Amino acid sequence: MTTFADKSAETSSAAGYIALDERWSTHNYHPLPVVIAEAEGAWVTDVQGERYLDFLSGYSALNFGHRHPDLVRAATEQLGRVTLTSRAFHHDQLGSFCRELAELTGTEMVLPMNSGAEAVESALKVARKWAYRVKGVAENQAQIVVAGSNFHGRTTTIVSFSTDDEARADFGPFTPGFVVVPYGDAAALAEAITENTAAVLLEPIQGEAGVIVPPDGYLAEARRLCDEANTLLIADEIQSGLARTGTIFALDHERITADLYTLGKALGGGIMPVSAVVGRADVLGVLRPGEHGSTFGGNPLACAVGRAVIRLLSTGEFQQRSTALGAHLHERLSELVGNGVSAVRGRGLWAGVDLAEDGLTGREASEALMKRGVLCKETHGHTLRLAPPLVIEERELDRGVDALAEVVGMR
Ligand SMILES: *Cc1c(COP(=O)(O)O)cnc(C)c1O
């Protein structure tokens, strides 16, 4: 038996916390060796009192920074009222949340869920039902076309159409009904769509794959192909949406709309898991009582936080910050190309930075950045994904890029 004193000794240092995680938590992540105890805005503080700039923002769940006062206030107020009713009863936050989210996004109806993966699952179910009941696809024949290198979450159905071996291996048998085509290849997409295609599911910018921006015109062509074939276009905007690229949807840059959008991450303000499918009422309207749901989906606390997120987004301030700071970030990053960096991509305050093949690995660069007080994470070996919170100041952004310049100059 360990005594209380032993236990506190175990957890008094970063190493102690890390050892505790290693012993008791499953090993499905490989975190950087930093143990965060507090955070505010663009900054986090570790258990030893060291401060770091957060250049990851919980993969865009923290677009408004840590503990934005408006979001904390909304959550605190709702904690004092009611947090959960289940959908067996109505509550006074759901309708307003759905209306405000639909108005913000220019859509007609909202299906609230919790995690991003649940929103994607929900969109897939709705698309299948729409295909059978509205489009007239024969029973169990519906297909959904997706892109290679996609990331849509971790459920067994979603990993069924992943092209990442790590995400799939040993998790079969897989859900049928998905067709994978290379991302950015409009001709391949055209060929894959048949009369049985219920939907095309795409990330307007592929986040997890390394902030991959598709070729000009690709998304508009996807929209045209879907219209031509009476097929739904589903945009997964869980990471790209809600001001990350300077607009509510990354798709807005292409001046096209999707039939359904999945939202998550920033919708919960970094406080709650809040996700949703938003889109056409004639599509989402196919769901009837008993066919889909979630105990926590659309709960009062989630709706109250979501409504505060929507209020922040309705001013346009964060979209403007992303555009202006993003231009600055990309200008600064472009100076690194040829100096330890082979390519930079992205839009708004979001960048994928490919490290030179003969330089540091993504992991080594992330660790070196951590030692310089900047937190970010590699994706796929040689790429760093930068997604600072949209509340970051320009001088803080410069501080992060300066640290990166130093790190990529290392061997
Ligand atoms: C993160 C993410 C998801 C999954 O969201 P979870 O909340 O982790 O389930 C789905 N799609 C995209 C594009 C994402 O970035």
Walk me through what this model shows.
- This protein has 411 residues and is an alpha/beta fold.
- The protein folds into three domains: 1-30, no CATH class; 32-60 and 318-408, Aspartate Aminotransferase, domain 1 (Alpha-Beta Complex); 69-314, Type I PLP-dependent aspartate aminotransferase-like (Major domain) (Aspartate Aminotransferase, domain 2).
- Helix content is 37%, strand content 16%.
- The protein has 15 helices and 15 strands.
- It has a seven-stranded mixed beta sheet with strand order 4-10-9-8-7-5-6, with helices on both faces. Strands 1-2-3-13 form a four-stranded mixed beta sheet.
- Helix 4 runs antiparallel to helix 12 (300-314), helix 5 runs parallel beside helix 12 (300-314) and helix 13 packs parallel to helix 15.
- The longest helix has 20 residues, at 116-135.
- Bound molecules: pyridoxal-5'-phosphate (PLP).
- Residues 59, 115-117, 120, 151-153, 203, 207-208, 236, 238-239, 264 line the site of pyridoxal-5'-phosphate.
- This is ornithine aminotransferase.
- Keywords: Amino-acid biosynthesis, Aminotransferase, Proline biosynthesis, Pyridoxal phosphate, Transferase.
- InterPro entries: Aminotrans_3, Aminotrans_3_PPA_site, Class-III_PLP-dep_AT, Orn_aminotrans, PyrdxlP-dep_Trfase, PyrdxlP-dep_Trfase_major, PyrdxlP-dep_Trfase_small.
